Amino acid sequence: MSHPDIPHTIDAFHRGRFHLIQPSARGHRSGIDAMLLAGAVPDDFSGAVADLGAGAGAAGLAVVSRCSRATATLIERSPIMTDCARLSLALPENSAFSGRCEIIQADVTSTGKARMASGLLDNSFDFAIMNPPFNEAKDRATPDALKAEAHVMTEGMLEKWVKTAVSIVKPGGSIAIIARPASIQDLLAALQRRFGGLIIVPIQPRPQDAAIRIIITGVKGSRAGLTFHPALVMHHETGNEFTERAISITNGIASLF
Amino acid sequence: MSHPDIPHTIDAFHRGRFHLIQPSARGHRSGIDAMLLAGAVPDDFSGAVADLGAGAGAAGLAVVSRCSRATATLIERSPIMTDCARLSLALPENSAFSGRCEIIQADVTSTGKARMASGLLDNSFDFAIMNPPFNEAKDRATPDALKAEAHVMTEGMLEKWVKTAVSIVKPGGSIAIIARPASIQDLLAALQRRFGGLIIVPIQPRPQDAAIRIIITGVKGSRAGLTFHPALVMHHETGNEFTERAISITNGIASLF
After folding, report:
1. Of A200, A208, A214, which is closest to B230 when you measure between CB atoms?
2. pTM summary value
3. CB-based contact (8 Å) between B136 and chain A?
4. Helices B157-168 and B184-191: angle between axes, nearest 10 degrees
5. Helix, strand, coil % (nearest 5) of chain B?
6. How far is B226 from chain A (nearest CA, A)?
7. Most buried one in A29, A92, A205, B58, CB count within 10 A?
8. Cβ–Cβ contact B240 with A under 8 A
């Protein structure tokens, strides 16, 4: 199960309640975004979560670490990242919840029979969470191919990701997405007529700052209207301290809702 | 110029710096929303503002009352409301800026030659502001036809309003819209490929409340991305006092940006 070719780190999340093996120099390194995304799953949630484009599994593990009645399926196409996830699940530090996790190596954008064959069945999950690549191809290129794969959003990608999500989530099931504010037009267009009761939560670095991320949640098939919740503010007006709410959510003590 | 058939009120805005004649019992009564919308025009703005669906003219008058180098064109299809606007402009209390206002009785959704004939020429304004009807037809019906006309949003209406705005605004000119959060999908779809550099400002009753309105601004032809500004919060966590920022903006002391 070990992967000696890839130098890796073991990072503690949720104040040591779970650990994550990640490539140390290459690929996407998970952090705050994954913790915030996981925070969109309510504390009392019970059921199956699909972490689409899971990377090393940070968001999915954060959900099962906090929600004791949740199971997680980590869906990731990169074999290096699924290897990391597999190694993480084998860590004794993660034994409290690793039995509630599985890994599917698959491309989130696969469709039809290919998707089904990988194990992503229709109407089989209660909640889909996703932190899709968000750099546009025109953004500064990274020389790291593994990182580029995780970070670069290609044309129509959000549409494909949301389409997979709406297929695999049961009617009445939920979706949560963390994205850049600039993606909102594409996201809302992709969600329309698929997920309703949308809630947008802006994530602001400080009270006086523009949002750097948004979290959008929705319910499959709902016809309820869209609402804007108050922003989650990460830091105070000055200084480096996190706000109490940011500390609670990023450490898996409380959910976003 | 008087309109004895319609009982009306004269209401002071901006701490008495301008006055507005409105039908007292019928039609849309302007207030906070119009003041917030006007607040989206920067203090140092200079140029021609089109107030689309101006009603009695509250937002347009609020702009010229605060911005000494702005002119306003109040565009409204209801003859009762344009009569009110005309009476307002004739009030001695408004003489400081009434010379910088004109009224066009026209339907905002008119197109092509009909729009041109009413005086709404292509590329002729520097800023379009609009507070479009926002009740869906399925919402609780009002027995007041004049009010219903101002409040009920019909299918495709936002698209038509934004289309008129992008036609009459000069390249590089601006738009500002106040709307319900639930309208954001339709609004963003209408704005796409017409206005860029969009800024969304949620308006929250209190720090802990979901937004009840959003203000969206944009620049014609801009390719800049979308940003979420911090919410404008109207009241404190408890009590009826307005916040300092809400007081400044609604009284025409400061702009929103």
Report:
1. A208
2. 0.91
3. no
4. 40
5. 30, 30, 40
6. 5
7. B58
8. no
Element (H, E) at A202: strand A195-204
pLDDT digits (tens, 9 = 90+) for B67-112: 999 999 999 999 999 999 999 999 999 999 999 999 999 999 999 9
Query: At residue A123, what is the residue type?
Result: N
Report the CATH number of the A8-250 domain: 3.40.50.150
Domain ranges of chain A: 8-250
Summarised one tens digit per residue, pLDDT across range B194-222 is 999 999 999 999 999 999 999 999 999 99
Three-state secondary structure call for residue B238: coil
**Which residues in A lie closer than 8 A to residue B136 (C-beta atoms)?**
none
Number of CB pairs < 8 Å for A and B? Answer: 62
Look up residue B210 and give its two tokens: 């979901």
C-beta separation of A75 from A48 below 8 A: no
Give the distance from residue A41's alpha carbon to the nearest chain B alpha carbon, in angstroms.
19
Longest dimension (CA), chain B: 53
